[in-house]
Structures are given as C-alpha cells and as structure tokens.
Protein: EAL domain-containing protein
Organism: Acidovorax benzenivorans
Amino acid sequence: AKSDHRHSMQLFSAEMNRRAQERASLERALQQALSERSLTLHYQPQVLSSSPGTLHGVEALARWNHPQWGMVPPSQFIPVAEDAGLIHELTLWLLDEACRQLAAWRAAGHDVPCVAVNLSGRSFHRPEFSQEIGDALQRHGLRTSDVLLEITESVMMDARPVTLKNIEALHHQGFKLSLDDFGTGYSSLSYLHRLPISELKLDMAFVQDLTTSATARALTVSVLSIAHSLGMVVVAEGVETTGQQQWLQAHGCPVMQGYLFGKPLPPDEIEAWLCAQAP
Ligand code: C2E
Ligand code: CA
Ligand code: CA
Ligand code: CA
C-alpha cells in the first residue's frame, strides 16, 4: 500500500509538471502572437427582437489560430493572458482593431450601429485605463456611443478605488457599460442602480433552459422586469431555437444574440450577412 501511495504521488507530480509546461508553452506562444499581431476578431450579430434583420450591434470576440495547434478557444487563452500579465496589451490592441473595423465598415457604407468589446477586470486596476480606451476611439474618429464596453459582475463587485474611478471616468466620458453573463455570478442586484450600467446580457444558461425549466422562465421574467424599470436594455445570449426566440419576444426582451441569427463571423462575412438582410 505504501508503494502504491508513492506511485500515485509520482503520477500526480508528473501531471502537475506536464500542466505547468503546457501553460508555459501556451504563454510563450501567446506572447509571440501578440508581438506578431496574429490574433483576429470575429463579430457576432446582435439583432432587434422586433426586426431580426436589423442590427443592434455586433460583439467582437477574440480568435487565435495557432500555426500548429489550430484554433485555440478564448476560454483557454484569455485566462492565460490574465495570469501572465498580457491581458492589458491584448485588450487595447483588440479594442483598437474593433474601432478600426467599425470605422472601415461605415466608410464602406455599411450600417453597423455599434461594436461591443469584452474587457477583463484586471485592466480596471490600471489608473490610465479609461483614458486609454478614450484614446483608441479618437484614433479612429469614433464617439463613445459607437462602442459598448462589456464587463462582468466581478468588476462590479471589485471595491478597489482604482476600479471605481475607471468606471466613473468611463461613464463621465459617455461610454455605455454592459453587464455580461448576467445571472451567473454573485448576482447582487443592489449595485445595478448604484453603477452606470445601461445593458444586461442574460447568460445563455438561462436562455437554453427557457423551454424546459419553469425556474429559468421565472428568473428571466424578473430580470426583464428589473431591467425595464431601471431603463436598461436586455440582450439574450445564446439564442439557438425559434422556440427561445418566440418566448423572449413575447416577454419583451428587446435584443437577441445567438446562432439562430448568426455565429461569430470574420469581417467580410459580416458584410455578406448585412447584404443578405437588406430589404
Ligand atoms: P462571452 O463574452 O459570454 O461570449 C459569448 C460566447 O458564446 C462566445 O464564445 C460565442 O461564440 C458563444 N455563443 C454565441 N452565440 C451562441 C449560441 O447560440 N450557442 C452557443 N452554444 N454559444 C454561443 P467564444 O467566442 O468562444 O468566447 C468565450 C468567452 O471568451 C467570451 O464569453 C468572453 O468571456 C471571452 N472572450 C472572448 N473574446 C474576448 C476578448 O477579446 N477579451 C476578453 N477579455 N474576453 C474575451
Ligand atoms: Ca461578452
Ligand atoms: Ca456572455
Ligand atoms: Ca462568458
């Protein structure tokens, strides 16, 4: 038994070692991708419930196509970027790219109302963050209403003065904040009216349970009602079926996003999507 135990300890540390090496090589490759500017953005349509051919906006989502490993999902490389201190550079670069793309679409006559970008909570610890975001817009001649900033509940719960200062400075500049993955985190409703949130993104876990779970339906009804009374827009995420679409529309959800309307697409396919919807 004793030698069994020793054997499993050795396996355990071999596994730890393998994981640490995997992480280190992911980190090196990500660092390289950043310096070569080889990440890209895909854009997912967000449509009006009342008119699913009309854009509310598009969400910019990071993509990494590694020469050997192929597509690395953001759920894998964003946490690595956060731990390795690379997230800030990544965020500012992708923000700049999203702004450049929006300006290019408009110059080509495409009607894209705004682009939503995902911000990591880590970036809010930098005192200059709100200023850097404003600078990116200015470089591309955009206004604060052109870019929606998606943050998560962890940012809302972060009591650091520097985080609050950034949130207030962004609000003061005229930016709109969107609360991502709503309903999955701490879900304290008390900060909703204390902080300048103008949009809630209902997490896809709720949306995908709508047709099977009375609890998911009850929670969604109350989120829609709270948002409505606070003057916030709700975006339902992960809408995949017409059953979900019909339920959400009947219950007054104004904006939807999901595979039913469009997957995250490279910029040229967004243009094709727009042309296909044109009356
Ligand atoms: P998220 O911000 O909640 O983004 C929505 C995710 O749901 C995306 O996954 C999108 O492709 C996926 N999705 C959209 N519609 C559907 C649907 O109908 N069905 C299903 N099953 N999935 C759908 P993706 O692109 O893999 O991104 C995963 C997460 O990675 C994002 O979740 C976000 O938290 C993070 N992420 C992506 N890009 C960035 C970025 O540029 N910066 C930061 N900080 N995080 C990012
Ligand atoms: Ca998001
Ligand atoms: Ca989300
Ligand atoms: Ca998410």
Notes: The mean pLDDT is 93. The longest helix spans residues 2-36. The chain is about 50% helix and 20% strand. The CA atoms of residues 16 and 22 lie 10 Å apart.
